[in-house]
Amino acid sequence: MTKSTIILIGAIAIAGPTASLVIHHQAQLKLRENDALLLQQDNQLTELAAEHQRLSNSVVQATSSTTDDPTVELVKLRTEAEALRKQTNELGKQLAENRWSRQWRPASRPDSGTGSNRSSSSDVVSDSNSEEYKEQLYGMTTANGKMDDARNLSRGVRFYAREHQGEFPSNFDQAAPYFYKDQKPPRTSEFELVFQGSLNDLTNVPLQAVALIREQQAWPTPVGKLGRIYVMADGQVNVVESDDNFQSWEAAHIIPPPAAGQQ
User: Fold this and answer.
1) Is the pTM higher than 0.85?
2) Phi, psi values for residue 130, rounded to 5°
3) ∠ at Cα 155 (140, 120), nearest 5°?
4) Is residue 187 classed exposed, middle or buried when 0-12, 13-18 and 19+ CB atoms within 10 A define those classes?
């Protein structure tokens, strides 16, 4: 090996971690910019709502006035109120979309592996800012084989839907023919289906926002919280850490079945 080759290899080895740090720093800056934008939009929406309320009160006062002819002033106020209502609705829609995008930004994306695990990515959802800690949580699911089980179930259930006009199975036995053949059968008793419906029901919903499969038993994390695996409708496998028994997370990600008599 020549001296120039050694120098080149050393330069590449140094540049790799440096590039990763730069990318991470840029991502953090972008995140802070988005948070600042959300705060600004929140303030704007509050101001618009207050102004809309003021105009609405003025319309009521002008309508109920009996001393002067309120017609001209009333038309003017109603026009302003309608314009403000449209502006408020548009800003509210934009704010909701930005919040949605911010909420579903992956917290962490460990290496999804190769071979039988090739089709599913994995995220770790935790309040911790430590990537090392998130890797630790992820490692807990790979050590006991639960991650492999979740990915296998993810494939089976989604491939079943693909072959059945978008309808998801009502149980794991129906999805068994679609499990990985080069991997041992998943422990279906460790998981449960939490969405039973059709992909057609999710036309206007991001698939990565809907939980499809849930690990039945939660487990303690190193900081005293609870951890659980969830498979999303797009196939992504989430390792979720919670301090409220997953109530907040599930309220935002699990679609309850329709009430009796409703479809």
Assistant:
1) no
2) -90, 115
3) 50
4) middle
Chain position carrying tokens 């740090």: 21
CA distance 196 to 212: 8
Q: Pull the structure tokens for residue 240.
A: 């979720």
CA distance to 30, 159, 215, per residue, from 199 (Å): 33, 12, 21
Distance CA 46, CA 212 (A): 36
pLDDT tens for residues 169-208? Answer: 999 999 999 998 888 899 999 999 999 889 888 888 888 8
E strand map for 42-146: 122-125
Q: What pLDDT, on the 0 to 100 scale, is given for residue 221?
A: 96
Backbone angles phi, psi at 212, to 5 degrees: -105, -40
Token readout for 192 is: 């449960």
